[in-house]
Amino acid sequence: xxxxxxxxxxKNGERLTREEIDAIIDGYCKNGIPDYQMSALLMAICFxxxxxxxxxxxxxxxxxxxxxxxxSSISGIKxxxxxxxxxxxxxxxxxxxxxxxxxxxxxxxxxxGLGFTGGTLDKLESIPGMxxxxxxxxFFETVKKVGMAIVGQSAELVPADKKLYAxxxxxxxxxxxPLIASSIMSKKLASGSDCILLDVKYGKGAxxxxxxxxxxxxxxxxxxxxHFGKDTRAEITSMEQPLGLAIGNILEVQEAxxxxxxxxxxxxxxxxxxxxxxxxLQAKLYEDAxxxxxxxxxxxxxxxxxxxxxxxxxxxxxDVSYIENPEKFPKAIYAFPIKSLxxxxxxxxxxxxxxxxxxxLGAGREKKEDVIDPTAGIVLEKKVGDVxxxxxxxMTLYTERANKRDLVSRALGDFEFSxxxxxxxxVIEESIRMEGDAFIIEKD
Length: 444
Ligand code: URA
Hints:
The protein is α+β, with helices and mostly antiparallel strands. It contains 17 helices and 14 strands. Strand 4 (195-202), helix 10 and strand 5 (231-238) form a beta-alpha-beta unit. The longest helix has 17 residues, at 211-227. The protein starts with a helix and ends with a strand. 51% of the residues are buried. The model has no long low-confidence stretch (mean pLDDT 96). Uracil binds at residues 165, 174, 179-180, 183-184.
């Protein structure tokens, strides 16, 4: 195989064969293909795209670059979920125990936050003692005993993605649908679950800027998962404003705990009910969506999902006294309350900028090496559709960094008001799955 010929082929919009794609991924992983040639190929893919077949082959080659998890020793149907990431997205913290409390097995690998979005591992590690680096046997035992476990992505799974993603990051070749879809799905397939639920977010605070782009990515990922024999479904969800009220690690854990006590913010609860219902159907624990939803609603209220969360924290070494009494979590030294200078209805909230502000307050990482302050973040008091009177509290910024008071006026500018009444924003816009070769798209 001559790499320049393959680059030339893709540059001219021709298809790469399975053998060629295998040779490229294998060659790149073994350092036989230099970064400059791989970069040229990635850029050609960005401009020329890939066919469905090529994307399947790329996913398979990446999947075969490392180990895969065999979860067959865990009884029951294993269901994984993945979110493309957003601001205030603490869904895994509440959704995994919720579905596990009804018999779904969740053996989940998660990532850390970078930039304006947070990561599940960082949120979990804000619980004193919590370990996300379980050994494989501890991971399996925890899922068997508790019904769920969440650990960091193993470096042994899909090493090709690690290497390729690092290159894409510095060569402006991240935003290609086949490259994103194969990257995410190779990792999900390697994690070994029977079913996969994808939360593809769009909007100001998301990776995908528009609903159309999110739908395109979602379809590609559902197509890949289905091709590999997994029940794969996607939800297109709005990130036009932060999810829930809390942004930041401890703050989001506290909100997840409140939610598991039946006291969550409406948009977050709506997402949990919808995603939880879908996962129960995927796991074939229910055939009827209405009955599945009732079961999900019940376990959010009756303490059973909270109980699984407690067991999960305990099994992974976390100090459950913080979960029993969330007031015990440390608080940031500085709290900057922000009051409205206007009356009106909240028209929009700039999720991306609040995510960036939260990062500057200490809740996120600008660079991979940055250390997170678990107490930092933002708690919103108002969301789109709410009425606001001049002087009402809009949000509070929390930080250990004394010099961040200047972020107050910037955060204030992230709220836009209207004199006319506005409506709350829906969270889930569409659900996508496949039947045969056809996509079934249900709009909410
Ligand atoms: N997340 C991933 O895991 N891969 C991508 O390519 C983009 C986002």
